[in-house]
Structures are given as C-alpha cells and as structure tokens.
Amino acid sequence: MTLLLVPPPPHDPALPALPTALDGAAMAAIIASHLDDCRSGALELLECRPIYVRYKPGTSCLVQYGLTFRLSDGSRLETEGGVRLGDRDRTRELWSGPMLARTVARTARRHPGPPQPRVALIDELDAVLQLLPVDRQLPALVTLTARPSLRRSLARALTGADHGLHISRPVVVRYRPGRKALVRAQLKTQDRTVLYVKTYADDRASRVAALSTALVERCLPVARLAAVLPDVQGLAHEQAPGTRLADLVDVARFGAASALTGETLARLHAASMPSMDVAPAISETRLVRDAARTVARLIPALESRVTRLSDRIARRLDDLETRTTIIHGDFYDDQVLVDETGVTFIDFDEARFGDPRVDVADFIAHVSARWGADAGVNAREAFLDAYLGSHGRSTGSDMAGFEAAALLRMAVGPFRRLEPDWPVAIERLVSLSEEALDGTRTTGTTPLAHDEALPQIREVLDPPTMQRHLRTALGLSVDVRDVTLVRHKPGRRCTIRFDLLDAAGQPRVLFGKVYASGRAARVDATLRAFAGASPVPGLRLPHPVGCIGSLHLVLQEAVTGTPITERLLAGDTGLGGAIAAALAGFHRSGARLDRRHAPLDEVTPLVARVDRFAMELPALVDSARAVLEEVGPAIRRHGDSWRYMPIHRDLYHDNILASGDGLAFLDLDDAAMGEPAVDIANVSAHLVLLAIQGPVAREAIVRVRSDFLDAAISSDPMLDARLVRDLEVATLLRLATIHGPRRDGHKIADALLDAAHDRLASRSVAA
User: Which of 54, 307, 459, 610 is 20 to 30 Å apart from 45, CA to CA?
Assistant: First the structure.
C-alpha cells in the first residue's frame, strides 16, 4: 500500500477530524473497515489518495479521494469518492434520507459490480462516504455512467427515439463531488463522434447550452453543442480537435498558441450579447478578500501580509472604471485546445457578466505561475499583444491590479488540489501577486527587461527613476505611485500607464509610449501640432505632456471613454454621422505635420503583402492579385488630385472612444499630411470587416457604414467618391492578407475579397 501524506492546515476546532480525513493511510484503513466487500475479502483497498478539498474554515470541508482496489482475481479497480465534514445533522439527514437510498438502489441495479454498497457511514469522521457513481447532489451520474441508460438519454436527445444509437462504455474524465461531472462516450457511427456529457448539481445546463449556440453563431471557435439532456440536468458537446494548451511543453509552440488565444479572446469579449441568460457579475474585490481570509487561515504567518495585499488590490480595482461584457469566468491554458488550424475554447460553466480584464488577467497569471522566470515572457506578451491589438488599447489599462487579484485568488489552489508542498506554493503565489501589483517583478513577467531593442525599459518601469525623470526633464511636481505595462510589441514599442499624485495630492494618469526607434520626438511633435490647431467640437485627442529623448519616451494625458466596437456589435446605429463629423473636423483642424503620405505609399506595400499571401493562402491568391492589378493603377491615377491635409492613417473602430463628451481618436503615431479619403476608406473597410466578424449585428453595422459614408462625402465638396472607393478596395485587400492566415481566416479573407470585387464592379462607394 502506498501512503500519501498531505500537510493538514492549522487546527480547526469546528472540524476536529480534518487531519484524519487528509491522511491517506488513515483513511485507507477507515474506508476498508466500512466496506462490506473489503471486510469479506472480495476487495483489497491498495491506495487512498486525497486529491481535492473544498474548505470553509470553521464551517465545513469536502475531501475527494482517488481509490485503488484489487479484486479477488488480481485485477485492479480505480474509482473516486468523497466525504463531507462539519455538519452532524446534515450527515444524519443524508444517511437516513430517501434520496440517498434510492440512488444506492439504482446504482446496485445498473452497476452490480464491486464495491457494494457504494456508501458508508463513517462514524470516526461523522460523515458519509459516497463512491462513484453515488452522489446525492448528482443523481444523474448513475444514469450517465451506465451504457444502456446513457444510450437511451442520448438517443432521445439526438434522434427523438429511445433506441437506434450505440455507444462505447462511458468513462468519467472529471468529477467534482456535489458540483458537476464530465463523462466521455463514443458514438458507434461511421464518423465515430466522441461526445462529452456533463451533468450539474444546479440548473446551469440550459444557460451553458444557449451560450455555446450563440458563440457558434458568431463564428467563435468553441466546442459544438450536440444536445441538451434535461432528464440528467446536463448537455453533450462534440469533442473539439486539438491538444490542451496546458499540455504543451515547448515554449515556442506555447507562445504561438498564446497569440491566437489572445486574438480569439478579444473576439469573444467583443461579441456583445446583453440579453444572454448567464450568471450575474461577481465582485472581484469580494473574491480577493475571501481568498485572503482563506490564505490567512491556512498559513497564519501570512495573515497581515495578505490582508494588506487584498486591501491594496481592492483600492486599485475600486478606482477603475468598470466595463461589462460576457466573460469566460475561468479562463486559462486548460480551457484552450490547440491544433494546426488554431485554437478552440471549452468549458463555459463559469461564464457570467464581468469585466473582460478578469479573463485576460486569469490567463497571464496562470502563465506567470506555470512558466516562471524567462520561459513565460514571450507567451505572456504574445497573448497580451494579440488581445490588445484586436480589442483596443483601453482594455489593457491597469492590468496590474487585475493580475494581482488573479494571482491572489489562485493562491488557495495548491491547498485545494492537496499538493504536498502547498504551503510553499501558496506563499509563492502571494509573492507573485505582490510583485504584479508593485511593478517590482524582475523575473518571469517583466519581459521588457529582456527586449534588447528597448534597453531603456528598466528605467521606465522603475517608479523612483521615473519620478526623477518627470521632475527633472519635464518639470512635473508629481509622485509616481504605479507603473503598469499596457501593451508590448517586442523589438518595436510598448505602452505604459503611469499612476501619479500631483502637488495637490490629486490622482493623475499619464500614458507613455517607448520606442525602439527615434519616433518619440516626432510623435510628440504630432501631438503638439494637433494641440495647437483649431479645436474640433465633439472630438478629443490625446494631449501631449512631453518627450524624454534619452528614453525614447513620449507622454500624453489619459483619454477617457470606451471603444465604440461594443456599441456597434450591440446594434447601435447612431454613430455613423458622429464619426464622419469628428473626422471632417480632424481633417480641417489646420495642424501642420512633417510627414507626407502619397498615393504610392498606399499601393507599394500591397505588392509585398500579396506576395506573402500567395504562400499563406494560395487558394485565394488569384482573387487577391486580380484586385491588386485593378486597384493599384486606379489609385496612382489620382496623383494629380491628391490633397495634403492632416490625416490619421490608422483610424478604425478600436481607435475611436465614446463618452458623454463625444468621441476621441487614439493612436496618432502614423498621422501625416495626406488625402482625407484615406481615413474615410479605412473606417469604412473596417466596418465591412466587423460586419463579417459579427454577423448578428451585421444589419446595424451596414447602416452605420452607409450613414458614415453619406455624411463624410456630403461634408467635403472636394472629396472624390471614386477615390474613396478605390482606397477602400485597397484596404479590404490589405485586411484580407492580414486575416487570411489566421484560424478560419480564409472565410473572412474570402468575404473581404468578394466585397472588394463587388465595389470594383459596381463603381459605387456604397456597394
């Protein structure tokens, strides 16, 4: 017999039997003495492994075990079971209640093999032992683990009849006593479809099923729902292709898959579904404080430390403007499948309304905890870069607070999983949480320290050093409270948030960009040119604070608002005219910029893009080349009428914020003197893309695009509508080459190229 020892928590007067329940050797002897088959010699209990707990200090504790038996013929039997400590009255009620008796009787009929019976009253613990498939809170487990009854349940759901379906023997692949269980079975059909059937103790099955269906309709890569099984409070999903991201051991593969994961998570968060029936939002602050109290109870020496930490996290989160959308709710590398075509998300059991930064923080916190030091750097930043690039910069604001919260919530995990070194593992996660909040992390999650193209970043990330720079170089009388990474493009640039206190003690937020090149001075000059130009009613732009040349750092005031993407996907049709009016004012602001953007600057990069596209997606290259051959010369022909006015050059929905004060345009890095039609075409083409990606809101987005184009053309008598059309075609081609290589990107690229051909054929900008 193998004896597995798990350190118990400090003595809990309300649960005096807890140390015994966590002692595998002691429990093996106790369980064997209470099972008839063990007493008779029909079974020998070889091993009892405590594998999971749900602990409420001073109240109750559920302990789950993995059990290995040897049968009389020498074969082995693996199963699981559990006991719940802490409520004598509940124990007696459970033991004497009719529901347990009925479940035991059903189990004996459908599972006549050993051990029998699969329940026992453990007097030493004052608890009831329940062995699979007996679980009073999950009575459907008896049905799901017996092949005939599971076959009937699936047949009724899939074919409408009680017969005609054949399946393999069902196998329990994941089980949490009293909560939920996951069973695997294979249909004996030509395609041998594998189904995962899940049953719940509560009524969430219908909600999870509705959400899964809605996500598939929005072209998101999630496991496909096969059936809802109301008779077992469950549902069935088809097996999704791929390997769990958590199982990848190659750092490079993990990093590449993390980028796809970030991009896909951004699409999930952008899929506005305000009427979807999911769980309500949960206070992140409350979860953090609950985790701190549990850690303090498990390791009293950490009490003052985790209390201070949770207070600081709570203050940080309470200061933030919250955003709400449907989130996964339990998002990390175990919930992502990876194959050669991309990623698939699974397990939406905890989906709810919440701040999207919760999902982002959960993922990067797990990456930091798993990989440590240098190994997780690229994966973490690949994920963040892809997510923020797809979902807008504002979502990345103050990720430090959310990551610290995620790490502190995770700190209970090592004890919950009964890891042998759980005290050490908990303290490590507490330290990671502190480092994430303080911005003092020197290994593991400060990747910029390893970016050879950005050596100055060590200074920028250090609050005391930045305080000196802000005071001496820019004359700002401020105290630097926090420095937070928002976005990083390795080898190119990064965006950083600075939380300050001014001379009057009032909070102030600045955003800075650090460049590998010498762009900082030019970007600062661009911001100052717009700040000194004519103000545009209803439009806000980033206000310049200054440039620190030695750091290649440009600073600007924070711009409030949320990306209009959410409103567009929610069906808001009132934005088209407002965007056109703000953009017209931007073009007429009178700002004088040093850079010029000519027709060739639009056409020349497309040639290289299409050449790469030929290797990445050869099936569509003929269509792409046909667009390029027609639109390239068309744009060049507009050279004589090309105007030079201030243009944004990268304006689309994720760079436009909305608030009560109107709109704001972000990211003026590429602004230049050029043709206003460039911006109009870029906004319009991106709305075409958004309508393809968000088919539920397509009609509303099409209307916004139409209103935008009508207003933009009517507001500028000198605007050539044919040029807008040609530039939009070029932008659609560029977007096709960007999205084509991504998962399911060939469908998006094909649709974008079809739209480009339609516009060329119609000769109309509004096609």
Answer: 54
3-state secondary structure of 183: strand
Q: Residues 33, 35, 39, 41: is their CA dihedral positive or negative? A: negative
First to last CA, the chain: 75
- Please state, rounded to an integer, the average pLDDT across all residues of the chain: 89
> In the 3-class helix/strand/coil scheme, how is 480-540 assigned residue by residue?
EEEEEEEEEECCCEEEEEEEEECCCCCEEEEEEEEECCCHHHHHHHHHHHHHCCCCCCCEE
- Contact partners, residue 505, CB within 8 Å, separation at least 6: none
Kindly report, residue by residue over 692-709, the tens digit of the pLDDT: 887 778 899 999 999 999
Asked if residue 560 lies in contact with residue 657, where contact means CB atoms within 8 angstroms, the answer is yes
Q: Is the Cα torsion angle 109, 114, 117, 118 positive or negative in sign?
A: negative
Alpha-carbon Rg for the chain in angstroms: 30
All domains in the chain, ordered by first residue: 18-132 (3.30.200), 144-238 (3.30.200.20), 244-439 (3.90.1200.10), 457-557 (3.30.200), 563-762 (3.90.1200.10)
Under DSSP, is residue 232 helix (H, G, I), strand (E, B) or coil?
helix
Which of 220-234, 285-299, 463-477, 737-751 is predicted with the least confidence, judged by mean pLDDT?
A: 737-751
**Using omega within 30 degrees of 0 as the cis cutoff, is the peptide bond preceding 117 cis?**
yes
Task: Encode pLDDT of 2-59 as tens digits.
Answer: 444 678 899 999 999 999 999 999 999 999 999 999 999 999 999 999 999 999 999 9
Q: Which helix (H) or strand (E) holds 243?
A: strand 243-244
Integer Cα distance of 640 and 643 in angstroms: 9
Determine the Cα–Cα distance for residues 75 and 372; give it in Å rounded to an integer. 42
- According to DSSP, the residues that pair with 646 across neighbouring strands are 673
Query: What is the spatial distance between Cα 7 and Cα 104, in angstroms, rounded to a whole number?
Result: 33
Amino acid present at 219: C
What's the average model confidence in pLDDT over 308-325? 87
Q: Facing residues of 186 across strands? A: 194
Q: What is the DSSP letter of 589?
A: S
Strands 662-665 and 539-540: parallel
Q: Report, as an integer, the average pLDDT of 405-425.
A: 94
d(CA 661, CA 134): 60
**Cβ neighbours of residue 449 under 8 Å, at least 6 residues apart?**
442, 457, 458, 461
Specify the DSSP element, H or E, that contains 200.
strand 194-200
For 109, the token pair is: 């009929």
| 663 touches 540 (CB < 8 A) | yes
pLDDT at residue 105, as a whole number: 93
Which band of pLDDT confidence, cut at 50, 70 and 90, is reported for residue 487? confident
Inter-residue contact 601 to 736 (CB < 8 Å): no
- DSSP-derived letter for residue 543 is P
Task: Using CB atoms within 10 Å of the CB of residue 560, give its burial: 0 to 12 exposed, 13 to 18 middle, 19+ buried.
Answer: middle
**DSSP structural state of residue 10:** S
What is d(CA 110, CA 653) in angstroms, rounded to the nearest whole number? 58
DSSP per residue over 287-336, as a string?
A: HHHHHHHHHHHH-GGGHHHHHHHHHHHHHHHHTSPP--EEE-SS-SGGGE
Residue showing tokens 């996290």: 313
Strands 672-674 and 645-647: antiparallel
Q: Is the pLDDT of residue 192 over 80?
A: no
